[in-house]
Amino acid sequence: MGAASIKVLVTKIGLDGHDRGSRLVGAYLRDAGMEVVYTPPWQEIDAVVNLATQEDVDLVGVSSLATDHLIIPDLMAALKEAGLEHVEVIVGGIVPESEHQMLFDSGVAEIFGPGSSREDIVASAVKLGNAAQQRKLSSEEFSR
Amino acid sequence: MGAVAQQAAPAFDRLLAGDQALLARAISIIEAGGAAADGLAQRLCDHAGRADVLAVTGPPGAGKSTLIDAMIAKFRAQGTMVAVLAVDPSSPLSGGAILGDRTRMGQHSADRGVFIRSIAARGHLGGLALTVPAILDALDAAGWPIIILETVGAGQSETEVADFADVKIVVNAPGLGDDVQAIKAGILEIADILVVNKADQPLAKRTVNQLKDMLELRAENKRDVPIVSTAANKGEGLETLMDTVSQSLAAIASRSAEDKISRRLSGALLRRADSILKQRLRAIDDERLGSLCADIRNGNQTLDDAAKILLSQELRWRVE
Amino acid sequence: MIAKQALASWDEKPKQMMLPGFEEAEEAWKETYQAHIGTDRRITNRSGIEIKPIYTPEDWSDERYMADLGFPGQEPYTRGIYPTMHRGRTWTQRQLIGLGTPQDYNERVRKILDLGANAISLLPCNSGFRGVDCDEVPFPLLGTCGTVINTVDHMDAALDGVPIDRISTAMNDPTPFTLLAFVLGVAKRRNVPFDKVSGTSNQSDYISHYVANHMFYRLSQPGARRVLVDHVAYCREHLPNWNPVSVVGQHMQQAGATPAETIGFTLSTAIQYAEDCMARGMDPDDILPKFTFFFDISISFFEEVAKFRAARRIWARITKERLGAKDPRSWRFKFHGQTSGVDLTSQQPLNNIARVAVQAVAGIFSGLQSMHTDAYDEAITCPTEETARIAVATQNILREEAHLCDVIDPMGGSYYVETLTNQMEKEILEVLDKIDAAGGMYEAVGAGLVQSMIGRSALAAQQRIETGEEKVVGVNCYQSNDDGIEQPKPYRPDPETMKVHVEQFKQFKADRSQAEVDKALAALRRAANDDNDNTFAKVVEGVEVGVTHGEVVAALRDELGFGHPLIVD
Fold it and tell me: pTM of the full predicted structure?
């Protein structure tokens, strides 16, 4: 499986509005062949969960350039609550090293800091996206 | 198998009972196409036929998303649940897509009474018309009473999609170049309701008049299309639009579930056939084309006859 | 029209010089240069201008001195807007700070003043930028990026012991300027007359927020336009020492615009605001002296110097010829420079001290009026006390030790810098022409032109880094996973004090006179619907009776519409 069947939500939660990074990553993933659902900044956590549910995404990419990563654990909990354990979450932007573990503990799969290469980001998205799809409900389940 | 699969009731039943995650999953399966998609679509048919589908179509920049956003707010105020299927043209170069429309309806993102799904036009020979009917059935079967189908109305495939709707709303706005010309080709013809959005802009009156003139030129029984002016960003004209929509829906209220299902299904069938045929025609090798071309040049066949020969050969193949 | 005239004057090459031996020497150099360098690499700056290996009187000569340079404080203002420049009075040292509760801020601001800063600034919490009060946002985010200030009381605590009649205060305060309203509330309490209050409404430029960084209250664009003109009108009448307009190039450049595009967009925006004010009947000479600019200083050293010198020249011509200003004070391009955070890296963070120093020198040589130097951890967090101290010290060292301020416009006359200044001017004028052709900045932004230009430049800049054409130490060269330095620990406000702050705010709301608040908000709503009224005057009156920041914004959003960021893919 390649990038083509992967659907990813690129979003920003919290209060910061700087979206250069999220737009750039959105374009990277689109150019790699993925379907990208892109949102402007300031999404509420409930809205992100709704989006991820209704759009049936495999991946959620959250950009945080200020301190909005501090509420990502809340997002992770809300995704679990909604039964979206199979969805992988990647965080991009500026996250101080001392706060990485807190995000990993909450279930975040990867953190990409400034200067990460396009190749690394795409490769990770493909790997995690494919893994997420493996865990999704298959079409056979609907014919039971 | 995910954890979801191990729950007691079968997935299909839970979809019918309103599980949004399973509905979303089913739509993905339909989008992916193939035998699994057809099988699922067939089962969904049995449970569809209740929803009213409103197509909202028009050129880029007409303010469709803002209008739909305002319509959603009206439906929600009435306590009606609304699903939106946003058809998004994707970049043909990259193969990927940024599904942008979803984000412009952001005000309802956190409302569980609104289900918004965007689908990309990529990857399907024959376009979205192949998958949209079954996706409508899925939303319908899952109990969404109103489905708004948003299309760009730019290409053939997008306008065709609107054919699956019960009420077709064509949106235009002043200042989009040669206004009415932009939508004249084809999609004006399908409109049950014409909307001039951004009616607060200076040239809006002119656009309304152009549309009126255009209706005058039609056959007498086709002139009676309501024109509604809106400024969706300010909420103006929305009441009138909603009333007009209700009237159109009342006019087709007698349509049976069976009728709705078969309209979608027959459309799907024709488009599937069309798609298969196109695929076959594209696969014809140069040698066969070459010999027919030679016949045309020699005067042994007319172009028209040669095309029919080609077609009959292909159809014979199909039957065999 | 301005563009055409200026362009014509560059097309003339300097006349053949009578320098004995020049041509022979040049030929000889070319030969040896070619022999030694082999294949020369093509170098272009961030604005896309090709850079030659050497510049000589063939590129720029003294014959152009009066046309291109003149003297500081005189047209064409290339060398500076004042006769004395930094030799007389150096730049205002204005560190942007904002963190935690008003008390946290106050503690920090007093330390910065003790260290030698002679002006202060205030960066509000991002919840403020979003137009909501502290009781409406996720608690963990409060005060992590700026100070939580929602009322006059909060401002009073933040400025405790700060003499606001003597220290100028720049507020990062986009529409509808509640922070200034809070300052005026404090001034009244302290019996400071309004004409003693000095400073700037930093970032009052709503257009830059719409297109570039989206840190704004999301009033609709027409609403934001109206509120800004109200603000200018109010300040003109009541606050002679306040600069109501700060046109921001920083957001554009941070979002990816090239330095030349940045100046082009910013000046186009300034023209738009001036014309909007003039349409309201204001005299250009009444308002233009109060226009200020806010820019990033990137690490592309010579390009930045040329950028600002060219901008000064163009703005003087625009104000005089296009906007019809007659007072020389209207022609002066006054700008605040902030060393660019985009150039800083989270890898090997101490390296950022060197970067900031280079950026700051570029800013000083550009003749800026006030400066903020970034702390080295700014790429990672809101600066800590120690990193903020080093940032201030960097300015002190450059000002006191390095003899950078002895001579005015020390880069002036350099063949390279003068040529580059002219080339940058040409690039900038082309951008201005493009925006004019689109019907001005307001229209160009509405049509997505500016956003798509920025988007393209951002992608190109990213590609330059990815291909290694643009080097970033520690990122695409000299990488090291183990630089032996621990990342600085990020600043996080004390949750206990913040909790108290939020509780006190809730109590404040419960205790104030709701009748008076309702009355003030009703007056604000009426003003929003009456073009002859002034919304900002009503904000000032409202906050005095306890109306909060979030309430002001909510009322205006209701009346003037909700605005989406203007995004173009």
Answer: 0.84
